[in-house]
Amino acid sequence: MTSLTEFSITEAAAGLRKGDFSAAELTQAHIAAAEAGRPLGAYITETFDLASEQAKAADTRLAQGDAPGMCGIPIAMKDLFCTDGVQTTAASNILKGFTPPYEATVAANLKAAGAVMLGKANLDEFAMGSSNETSAYGRAVNPWRSGETDLVPGGSSGGSAAAVAGRLAIAATGTDTGGSIRQPAAFTGTVGMKPTYGRCSRWGIIAFASSLDQAGPITRSVADAAIMLEAMAGFDPKDSTSVDQPVPAWGASLTQDVKGLKVGIPNEYRVDGMPAEIEALWEAGQAWLKDAGAEIVDVSLPHTKFALPTYYIVAPAEASSNLARYDGVRYGIREKPDGASLSDMYEATRAAGFGDEVKRRIMIGTYVLSAGYYDAYYLKAQKVRTLIAQDFSKAYESCDVILTPTAPSAAFALGSKTDDPISMYLNDVFTVPASLSGLPGISVPAGLDKDGLPLGLQLLGKAFDEQTVLNAGAALEAAAGFNAKPNAWWAA
Prior knowledge:
- The chain is of the alpha/beta class.
- The protein has helices at 9-18, 23-36, 48-63, 105-112, 158-165, 182-188, 222-232, 276-291, 307-322, 342-353, 356-369, 374-395, 421-425, 432-437, 466-480; strands spanning 43-46, 74-78, 116-121, 145-146, 149-150, 171-176, 191-194, 214-219, 262-266, 295-299, 401-405, 441-448, 454-461.
């Protein structure tokens, strides 16, 4: 019998319904895997007792025939989603001990669907990073290795991706601000889906950049991504950016039929220094889709080269504003030296509570919003952001989806880029443009590099056309036939 930790959502749900195993048994197998997998640092807070209770409740629902697709499925919850009665830290020291009295809407939706929460997954502090090395609670490690070298799992949703790839959870929630679902998925051989901005509620998600943040799933297959996204999505009146549209039946409508689909290939995504094997995989992806009946067309996204500098003005500016609320007054840590004034307490708390990368982005954001620089930087960045979105709109006049690499490299060694922020930021070069435009995208594992590490291909779609993105992703997945998995070296 297949190990219970090897099942996808689709397979596990079928087994639960047939009575091959119970949700309690499925959950206990994943708890044991998570305990053995602690060297991966995938979880900040483990909620095994809660998971066991939720699994028993799921078994009751299953026995009654009340079983949505996520019922009884053990998942990891990125520690950016507020969870009622469970510590929520955003991987920051400043929120240590913060226990929300409410549930993020996405987390509540998954709970209502019967999902079982194993724990709160590690991430870059306040989702600011591409490697999961800025967490105040220790870095997460990629389950894949290059020889004896430990690798990053990507970021910011690195713990989520590590948990799924390492079989410590069947699926996980992530958030994507500039690629924080798609890039970790590419680094770990998993599927990462960022839906259209506004498709999933942001209420109860600790904010990084409010006009960019969007929740989505990290799973082991495209079909799983469709099922989980259905459970996560939906209109929420508590979120002013939530879009009042019905949630399509993405899972039931999923097909690998892409006959007649026009797939755009943007020349601007051929960047200097990109490894030849990523270029070759991109070419292979085009051939696979063409063989499946799709039409390959050239498109142009001329403002792509401005996307990264635009993002690293807009996102820090919004972060600077959002993080002003963390002052040690109402929740989290408080640093107040004897005899200190209120402003001294603010300064001491923020100095002790925020890590270097968060401080860096707050300072950048405060600078570009300051008098005399607002027009030169922030306002200009917003104008360029509009041009980038217009590029996509024009491209979609001649294609249905766009195919690109997900990341410019495979996973890199822990610590290899921490002293070079610009090099770290360049990891987002292929994912940021769609984030600035609010468009849906998916990363699908498509091959291995020369060192045996996973590489991903990205499909980007039109706003609120997740179905086409998922269908093309399913066709790509079938053609690639990726079934590699990491050796469980951490459990040896």
